[in-house]
Amino acid sequence: MADAYIVEVLRTAGGRARKGGLIDVHPADLGAAVLNALVDRTGVDPAAVEDVIVGCVTQGGEQSFAFGRNLVLASKLPDSVPAVTIDRQCGSSQQALHFAAQAVMSGTQDIVIAAGAESMTRVPMGSNWLLHRQAGLGIGPWPQSIQDRYGVTEFSQFHGAQVIADKYGFSRERMDEYALASHAKAAAAIDSGAFKREIVPVATPNGVFGTDDGVRRGGTIEAMAEIKALEEGGSITAANASQMTDGASGALVASEAAVKRFNLKPLARIVNLTITAGDPVVMLEEPIPATRRALERAGMKLGDIDLFEVNEAFASIPMAWLKALGADPARLNVNGGAIALGHPLGASGTKLMATLIHALHASGQKYGLQTMCEGGGVANATIVEAL
User: Fold this and answer.
1) Crossing angle between the packed helical segments 316-325 and 172-192, to the nearest 10 degrees
2) Annotated catalytic, 373?
3) Are 321 and 287 in contact (CB under 8 A)?
4) Which segments constitute the Thiolase N-terminal domain (predicted)?
5) Alpha-carbon span 256 to 41, nearest angstrom
6) Active-site residue identified among 98, 159, 358, 373
7) Catalytic residue, candidates 90, 98, 159, 183
8) How far apart are CA 334 and CA 338, in angstroms?
9) S-S: 340 plus which of 97, 186, 252, 324, CB 3.0-4.6 Å?
10) Three-class DSSP labels, 344-369
């Protein structure tokens, strides 16, 4: 099978939902800024892009009506470039990357952009179905057949995160400590300029936005202990969970033939693309078997991987992943994670890949693995080799 190369991978800085630097930017314009930067930085002829695959979770309001196509129409790409929008929940743009790589590996396309965009300010999480249910237009995404099969009225990520915390014996204090460390690592990365190469500055009515604005400096365990739990009697809180964030990200994926034709210098080679699914009620534990399968299919061991990006949807998720696999915590989310930097839902997949690949290059290391828990009990895992 042919190789697929990531020639460039970029992200916007994360803007805090409802109060951050991106609240006045239409999500299509947000995504377009990344598309423009991808072709500008690679020098690829925009007309040579054969498809744009865009991850987005809440496809309503300003993120409705062929949202992926709207990113193209808002960008400098010609209107001859097609696009599609996909929803794999939190892994949407990671799955976009998988689809893009698969198109290239199959030989059916040579240059594909995988991207994601989500404004959690302008299109609130769940608004694409909650408003309909509140208006009496149906019961929501889960029909009675699913409710009867799984003994629930709806699937809750908050409940799943709490179940995992309880299963692995994580106290609230331990999860708060993990969260505090995420903020500290992110602050250090910002201060050192670690994110400078991967971030696309975005023009806003209030000026150019280019620094993640959700990172909290000087936090304490004592202050975090005052925050109310998300479930009665639980240990999961807003302080040890990912932040609602506005943002966009993307990767330009090319074949070997396109690399030669356009004289491109790839940043990474795709080693393995894996997707698994399991318990939809616990939901968020699936990155563990996804990682195991990805390593097995790649013929690799955990120790072969230099850096890991495991999405910090909640502190209990990467903590459980570390404990179950016996991974080295020093290799995990070295520049902080979604607890500090935010989780712009459909944009988080290629966002984490941007951070992973640029961190590999900055440290001179070779292999990286990214995995993401997703609604419905699904998980993507991607292994890349830095070049």
Assistant:
1) 100
2) yes
3) yes
4) 5-256
5) 18
6) 373
7) 90
8) 12
9) 186
10) CHHHHHHHHHHHHHHHHHHHCCCEEE
Catalytic pick among 98, 183, 343, 358: 343
The predicted-structure confidence for 270-315, as pLDDT tens digits, reads as follows 999 999 999 999 999 999 999 999 999 999 999 999 999 999 999 9
343 is catalytic: yes
Q: Supply 26's token pair.
A: 């239409």
Counting residues of the chain whose pLDDT is more than 70, the rounded percentage is: 100
pLDDT of residue 138: 86
What one-letter code names the amino acid at 81?
V
Tokens of 319: 């903590």
- 322-348 exposure pattern, b = at least 16 Cβ within 10 A, e = fewer: bebbebeeebbbbbbbbbbbbbbbbbb
pLDDT of 376 > 90? The answer is yes
| Residue pLDDT, tens place only, 162-185 | 999 999 999 999 999 999 999 999
Mean pLDDT over each residue of the chain, to the nearest integer: 97
**In this structure, what token pair is assigned to residue 366?**
């070779």
Token pair for 52:
């744009």
pLDDT confidence of residue 131: 77
Amino acid residing at 309:
E
